[in-house]
Amino acid sequence: MATIETATKPDCAPLRADAQRNRERILAAASKLIAIHGNEVEMTDIAEAAGVGVGTLYRRFPDREALLIEMLREKFAELVATLRGVLEREDLTARERLDTFIRASCEIQGRDLGLHEALSTVTGEHQAIARSTPGLVESMERLAAEAVAEGSVRSDLAWEDIVMCSCALGHVIQHEDSLPGSWERLLAIQLAGLNPGPPG
Amino acid sequence: MATIETATKPDCAPLRADAQRNRERILAAASKLIAIHGNEVEMTDIAEAAGVGVGTLYRRFPDREALLIEMLREKFAELVATLRGVLEREDLTARERLDTFIRASCEIQGRDLGLHEALSTVTGEHQAIARSTPGLVESMERLAAEAVAEGSVRSDLAWEDIVMCSCALGHVIQHEDSLPGSWERLLAIQLAGLNPGPPG
DNA sequence: ATACAAACGGAATGAAGCTTCCGGTTCACT
DNA sequence: AGTGAACCGGAAGCTTCATTCCGTTTGTAT
Predict the structure, then answer these.
(1) Residues B169 and A168 sit within 8 Å (Cβ to Cβ)
(2) Rounded mean pLDDT of B9-25?
(3) Is the pLDDT of residue B1 over 60?
(4) Where would a tag sit more exposed on chain A, N or C end, judged by fewer CB atoms within 10 A?
């Protein structure tokens, strides 16, 4: 609904020390719980894990949605950090960087259900956050463009394909229990599918 | 929890005509609503769509879970019918049959959120239903085996890979709004990824 | 036609989870 | 070391659903 703005830094009102500490604990607790259980965790559980009362939680964040958005913002920022780290690796070919990132995003999603859900979900804010995370789209574009330039992937590869492959893999990973250990197979299939078409 | 058994046919107590009619209306309404909105639809809405009161719904099905299970059983049966239809097409190569089925399963999942969720979900019964649907696994095995025998796919292709590809694609399709129309690209990538490895 | 077991509808119940409220506590500035 | 704004905890309020209950209606077998 409202415009999305970073709510962490702007000291519109420099929080009291204890309040600031609690704010961070709440975000950390939410992050951890949601990584494990997904977005359906209860406010009460987050408060408890953070070692504060629900009242405190609601003093810091107007409602559930606001808390989740702020938390996601952090997770996306970490994702971009990973992505940038991969882009800088000049010891790898562009294709190897691409594969490395896709694999890394699989591992991250395997560890963090909440992030996977966010990556997949369109509903309202999530998509807006992803797109507004500085550097996310740009870095993916670069990842794709460099591999295309190198000629080691299909020539029409776009950044959206990277997102799509990652989301699809993340989905399988999160449902791994039904077909244990098999997401590596899908990864192999998809990476093979990214190869350049036959020269003809 | 309990053993899964077909609850439709066994006339353990031949339903009264109106009751039977209502039972079918309820299943149809649930099927339609869940195809559109996913598993989170409300019992009241299902009852309303079926043109009955909630009380009636609960006379027919002990609880929400039971209704959903029965409905899924029907959906899986339809999926097997599609699969069998494809397997019979002798005008196609084995590889073409494989591609046709994967594409068909994409379209079905695009049309039916509930089925997609069921295909992906492990939680309890769903997986059991899928595995216990007569012919589902067997048909997929045959689909894979024939393509392997023909040499038109990677030689280690297994039926689980077909499920995985379908689920992964279904996931992307259901979240199409974020990257409109792009699931066809992932389909192309995955199908290419199924090609046999380089002869060497 | 009559009777009654079975079925019907939908208001009432209860559980679960988000959010608010308020009396008591704590920081931070003089 | 005093004071008040800001903060804290968690009980209570509210909403949303699944599920139950019960007085009324309907199919079907005599």
Answers:
(1) yes
(2) 85
(3) no
(4) C
Q: Which residues of B touch A197 (CB under 8 A)?
A: 192
Nucleotides of C under 7 A from a protein CB: 6-12, 17-22, 26-28
Contact criterion met (CB < 8 Å) for B120 and A195:
no
B59 touches chain A (CB under 8 A): no
In whole angstroms, C8 C1' to B22 CA is: 11
Instruction: Give dist(CA A70, CA A34) in Å, integer.
Output: 13
| Partner-chain contact B192 A192, CB within 8 Å | yes
List of chain B residues whose C-beta atoms are within 8 Å of the C-beta of residue A182: 160-161, 164
Give the Cα separation of B175 and B193 in Å (integer): 22
Phi, psi of A92 (to 5 degrees): -110, 155
The whole-angstrom separation of Cα A117 and Cα A39 is 8
Chain B hits for A183, CB-CB cut-off 8 Å, are 164
Separation of CA A147 and C1' C17 in angstroms?
48
Kindly state the tokens that stand for A30. 């939410």
What is the C-alpha to C-alpha distance for residues A162 and A194, in angstroms, rounded to an integer?
10
Please tell me whether the overall predicted TM-score, pTM, comes out greater than 0.85 for this model.
Answer: yes
User: How far is it, in rounded angstroms, from Cα A35 to Cα A15?
Assistant: 27
| Residues B107-128: tens digit of each pLDDT | 999 999 999 999 888 666 778 8
What is the DSSP-derived secondary structure letter of residue B105?
H
B195 CB within 8 Å of a chain A CB = yes
B112-135 b/e (C-beta count within 10 Å ≥ 16 → b):
bbbbbbbbbbeeebbbebbebbeb
Instruction: Give pLDDT < 70 ranges for chain A.
Output: 1-12, 122-124, 199-200
Whether chain B has a CB inside 8 Å of the CB on A164: the answer is yes
Name residue, tokens 């990556």.
Answer: A119
Judged by CB atoms closer than 8 Å, whether chains meet at B192 and A188 is answered as no
